Amino acid sequence: MTTVAVERPRPAGLIAWLASTDHKRIGLLQIAASIGFFVTSGVAALLMRSELAEPGMQVVSRQSYNELFTLHGSGMIYLTITPLAIAVGIYLVPLQVGAAEIAWPRLMLLGLWLFVAGGVIMYLGLAVEHGAAKTGWFATYPLSSSAHSTGKGEDMWICGVFLAVLGNTIQSAGLLATIVRKRAPGMTMARLSPFTWSMLATVLMAITSFPVLLGTMAALEWDRLHGGVFDRSYGPVAYQLLFWFYGHPVVYVMFFPFVGMVAEAVSAFSARRFFGYKGFTLSILLFAALSMSVWAHHMFSTGRVNNEYFSLTSTMLIVPAGLEYFAIIGTMIGGAIVFSTAMLFSIGFLLLFLIGGLTGIIVASPPLDYHLTDSYFYISHFHYTLFGGSLFGFFAGVFYWFPKVTGTLLRESLGRLQFVLFVVGANLTFFPMLILGFEGMPRRVATYPTRFTTLNAIETAGAFVIALGVLVFLVNVWWSLRRRVPAGKNPFGGPTLEWWTTSPPPRLNYDSLPPIRSYAPLFDLTETTAPAEPGPPGRRSRRAPEDKP
Amino acid sequence: MHRRWMPLLVWAAMLAALTAIQFVFSTNPYYWATLGGTAVATAAFAVYYLWRPPLREAEYVPDSSYATVAVALGAAVAVAGVPFGPWLYLPGLALLVVGVGGVVNELRVERSRR
Question: Which of A49, A72, A519, B37 has the fewest other C-beta atoms within 10 Å?
Answer without folding.
Answer: B37
